[in-house]
Design brief:
two-stranded antiparallel sheet; alpha/beta; 13 helices; 10 strands
Length: about 300
């Protein structure tokens, strides 16, 4: 069994010693309904490297980590089981193919077979793409349900941002899969794209299924800051500051500081200031890649 999560006074997730009852994915989903969590994707080539980085993510205040199976040099059921069971953070297991921005170069059937094997070790969540064959996707989702593993169904667009109506259709399609969380990631090119991403969150917030939505690249950075304030249940960040990170992710330390500041204000209070939040879309990150906390703090008073 992995370790138990509890909520610290600062609002971040930490882990109790092994063997203590662990919160289920349903419990984590319940927390996500009240406030967003921080997920740190970790790209490592082997178990030791991954677990070392995972420990750093835990120490720096990440709530959840993403286990990017596709980055591992070699993979087996034993390796999957070891990483998942040794983890001291809840894990989202993901095995991306190259078409969806991943590194897995094997065939599609093998990719999904590896993902199914990972589910058997009972991570907190599995991430499965909306774009794959429905029959194969349904098989993954059913296996996750049987194993009490939460389901994130994801959609990525690495070229542009759809219109609000198109985004709503994507959300509806994900909703029909029976997933617990809809993850929608786009590539903003214009300020209109930013507004499209932000404007749909109000309609998502009125639905039962949880969601996370944001834009990639430098243009999309602001959406990673604002959509959690507007109702998104997860934000993704890099473990460390990386000037070569072309996804537009802030680093974990900056994100934790930002979330802690929001926690003191109260997530529900902030989310009731939608009109103010929609006017923050022109804020830019600091030169060092950190969140402009002072500016946001002033505008949210």
């Amino acid at each position: 069994m992995a370790n138990r999560i509890y909520t610290s006074p600062a609002g971040c997730f930490n882990y109790m010693p092994r063997g203590v009852n662990m919160l289920s994915s349903k419990d984590i989903l319940s927390v996500m309904k009240e406030k967003p969590l921080i997920c740190t994707p970790i790209a490592a080539g082997n178990s030791d490297s991954y677990l070392n980085s995972l420990q750093s993510a835990k120490n720096m205040g990440s709530d959840i980590a993403e286990f990017r199976i596709d980055y591992f040099n070699n993979i087996s059921s034993e390796i999957l089981n070891n990483v998942i069971n040794e983890s001291e953070l809840p894990l989202i297991v993901t095995n991306r193919n190259r078409e969806d921005g991943g590194m897995f170069s094997g065939g599609e059937d093998i990719r999904l077979e590896v993902l199914e094997t990972a589910i058997e070790s009972k991570p907190s969540f599995v991430d499965i793409e909306l774009a794959i064959n429905k029959q194969k996707r349904d098989k993954i989702i059913e296996k996750a349900r049987i194993n009490d593993v939460g389901i994130i169904c994801s959609y990525h667009d690495f070229r542009h941002t759809p219109t609000p109506n198109e985004i709503l259709k994507i959300y509806s399609d994900i909703n029909e899969t029976g997933a617990n969380v809809a993850k929608m990631v786009f590539t903003p090119v214009t300020n209109k794209d930013i507004h499209s991403i932000l404007s749909v969150t109000e309609k998502f917030s009125n639905n039962e299924m949880l969601f996370t939505i944001f834009g990639m690249r430098q243009k999309g950075q602001i959406t990673r800051m604002l959509t959690p304030l507007l109702g998104a249940c997860l934000t993704y960040c890099s473990l460390y500051k990386d000037p070569n990170n072309n996804l537009g992710q802030a680093d974990l330390q900056s994100t934790r500081k930002y979330f802690d500041m929001m926690e003191t204000k109260g997530w529900s209070v902030i989310r009731n200031k939608r009109d103010v939040l929609m006017n923050l879309d022109q804020i830019e990150f600091n030169e060092d890649g950190s969140y402009p906390l002072a500016t946001i703090d002033q505008l949210l008073k």
